[in-house]
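From the thread on structure requests for the teaching lab: each student submitted one protein with a one-line request. Submission from student K.M.:

"Model Nuclear transport factor 2 family protein from Pendulispora albinea, tokens only."
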Amino acid sequence: MKRSLLASAPFAPSALVALVLAHAQTACAPAPSASAPTPAAPASPAADIEADKRTIAAELDDWHAAAAQANEARYFGHFAKDAIFLGTDAAEHWDVPAFRAFARPYFEKGKAWTFRATKRTIRLAPGGQSAWFDEDLETSSLGPSRGSGVLVREDGRWKITQYDLSIPIPNERLSELRALLEGPPKPRSKERYKEVYAKASALAESDLPGAAKLLADMVPEAKTHPDEDLEFWLHNELTWLHWAQDDLPGALAEVDAMRATLDHGTLSPDATATLRLHERWDRAYILLEMALTGPRDKRTKALAEANAARTSYETLAKARDDRDGLTALDTFFAVRLGKSKEALASAKKVDLTQRGDVQDLYIFQLAYEAGGDKQSANAARTQICRAKNYLMRPLILHRGAKEGWRC
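Reply posted by the TA:
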């Protein structure tokens, strides 16, 4: 049964009269004109604000957890479409695609970074469609840090549209920091490596042991960066410096060091597989040289080891479609094993004008020489002599001089 509105109203009679009069006045009032200003959106009830704050805090906590768990899709799913991330370096002003490209190698390693909020303040804008926050962070890599940012409602969720990561500096330490920043920058490992590599390449023209020492002296520093490929390339270059000096056991030791670097490094699986191609190719090459120059009574076993290394390389090379490397190594084995016709046929598959790698050109000129094609052999040597000067070029020229040809 319906109850009477008047019977259920919790008002005193005088209040009821006033209410009825007020209602009548409102009903008779003229409608607002089209140009009248729109009233401001009413503030969200306190309960809604607190619920939004809890939701935002949970989103931010999950965002940080996704980084710690190296979950790339989940981490970047917390960003709004046009989000910006500001890092601690002045150059780190990224939109989402740029930030994702920077961060991907860290996620691929299985561990990105660990940030945990120890204190956080969240405020909502009127209308409840955006919010801003600041948080104190405990981090594994930066020490005590601070983050602040803005979130918006997008696709039914709170998403980060701007995040600014910073490292608070105590005021009393600012003068020290300024002096550090204004002083000469300490060269980073890769920057130093470029300088050392250039010096070693120039020195290798006249002093192979000196060039090797320059590069070997960088190995201890490179070992402190297992997330980079620097140590691998140093051992690779040292392999061929030993080879150019006819130190094949020393060359093989460097190949073993290349493999150990990959086994214990933290590079991405794809980068590791690419570098393993180089290590296996070098191993097969050096083992064949050792088999053919070593004791005759041990040659059968040594050749078996070289062929096993070659097969190991071929398996990975075919999986990654490394045709250039396969052709060069096939040609080299044919040359060294005295299969001159096979070597010549393999070399003729290659357009020398499209090859800039001087080691490949060296192998192909060996094949042409063995197969009696003097003109093509000379053409390959001319390309070696005209090649840009990087470390392998003087090493090949040293070997060429021993074999009776020069530029």
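TA comment: Residues 1-36 have pLDDT under 50 and may be disordered. The beta strands are 79-86, 93-95, 115-124, 130-139, 145-154, 157-166.
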